[in-house]
Amino acid sequence: MAVFLTEKEKKKYKIYKKGSLPESNNILSHQAEACRRQETPPCLWLEGSFTLEAAVILPVMALFFVMILMFFRVMQVQMDVQKALDDTGRKLAVMAAQEGEDHEKIVGMAAANVLFKKNIKKSDNINHYVVNKVAGINLLKSKFTEDKIYLVASYGVKMPVWLPGKPYLKIRQHVICRKWTGWVEDNGNMEIWVYVAEKGSVYHTSRECTYLKLSISAVNYTDIKNKRNKYGEKYRECEVCAEKIKGKNTVFITDQGNRFHYDLNCGGIKRTIYMIRLSEVGNRKKCSRCET
User: What's the whole-number average pLDDT of the chain?
Assistant: First the structure.
């Protein structure tokens, strides 16, 4: 419904034309007015702040995920190093059983380094992530006492990003093993340890016995007639191998034995050695080769 005003009412209620409103009644703020003058749409007023936040947050998030991945990388390296330390410690503990008053000290830093490098050289994680690869792992802080072996491995893991003063992450791992030196019984006598083969009928006082530590050679079957062992004996066919495999061109012999074998895994040349107490040898006789 249309409304008509009189002259007095028109004077009482001032009617402003479009665009003639006072500045105080303008609904736009000063910032909005500046944007309007620059012909910038209001929807783009906050675009700059979003870009700034993204520029700050994205690198932080990327660094966060990289550090998480590095955590798993370090775990893989530590597992490989620890496994090598455990294997080295166990082997050194067994080697210590051969030490005595009449034997030179064979368990030491040199033996530990050789065994450790041998156990860890096949690890891809070490070659990729450890500073200087296998050569960067040292056992200098290891020590050896009369009855225990303390192996300490120190090395550095490469950092995925460069940090001031932190070219790499320093890590140290250790393992403690007790030497296999036997024990003292109540009567004060030291238990003696000996070696036996899985199917052997004698026991050995030395791990280096030629019966246990065989020197195996591969020869042509046609040349076996002219071969002789260390004692001048001819080689005869192994009864165990002949039943399973026969007719091979290559056979295997040892310096001490008098049989030739078709199979390298034959029980006649393969030795599975156990270390037992002298009181457990049963009916086994002492090896004649160990006495010489």
Answer: 76
- Total number of domains constituting the chain: 2
> In angstroms, rounded to a whole number, what is the distance separating the alpha carbons of residues 206 and 223?
33
The amino acid occupying position 71 is F
Residue 64 shares a structural domain with residue 169: yes
**Cα–Cα distance measured from residue 216 to residue 235, given in angstroms and rounded to the nearest whole number:** 13
Q: Are residues 198 and 129 in the same domain?
A: no
Distance, CA of 235 to CA of 81 (rounded, Å) = 46
The number of residues in the chain equals: 292
Kindly give, in sequence order, each residue whose CB lies less than 8 Å from that of residue 178, ignoring residues fewer than 6 positions away: 93, 147, 148, 149
Residue 206, token pair as written in the block = 């030395």
Q: Report how far residue 100's alpha carbon sits from residue 104's, in angstroms, rounded to the nearest whole number.
A: 7
β-pairing, 259-260 vs 236-237, is parallel
247 and 287 fall within a common domain: yes
Q: Measure the CA angle with vertex 13, ends 12 and 18; round to 5°.
A: 145
Label residue 48 by pLDDT band (50, 70, 90): low
CB 190 within 8 A of CB 266: no
- Domain extent at residue 243: 193-291
Which pLDDT tens digit goes with each residue over 14-32? 544 444 444 444 444 555 5
Radius of gyration of the chain (CA): 42
Question: Rounded to whole angstroms, how far apart are CA atoms 82 and 151?
Answer: 10
Higher pLDDT, 282 or 246: 282
Q: Are residues 210 and 148 in the same domain?
A: no
Residue 2 to residue 236: CA distance in whole angstroms = 132
CA 270 to chain centre: 30
**Per-residue pLDDT tens over the stretch 169-203:** 889 999 999 888 765 555 555 678 888 887 788 89
